[in-house]
Predict the structure.
Amino acid sequence: MTKKTPCPCGTGLSYGACCQPFVELGQLPPTAEALMRSRYSAFTLANAAYLLNSWHPTTAPKDLNLKGSANWCRLEILASTEGSENDDRGVVEFKAHYMSQGTSGSLHEVSRFVKEGGRWFYVDGEIQGSDGEAKKVGRNDPCPCGRARKFKKCCMA
């Protein structure tokens, strides 16, 4: 991914102006939502090191294998409570849309974050109810990521 590529987290900014400084350059996200967005971008890039580093040590897994994981297509931030630069706790509710083996789906989670020593960490998340059954997507169907392109020219590519 280049600095000029649109950021996977969906802000409309380039990756270089949005999540890259956090995911690749070691800068600290200033808010819980910025950490959530950067973690989503790290998932799309299969950057397990960043994900583990931004996970609170009390809840982080020992390792994280992202090989063969879903193709993350789009992030929707539904709500953000607290989590500003002046807070020490925050909650971000989101939906992350994905494709896996030709089937679309979404992960709906309410995530908890804490700020310790001036640094935000992901603590844990509560998965919300399913939005229904996963849907099989055909090559010529509209892409479920919402970009108004055919699946074969978008997330399938």
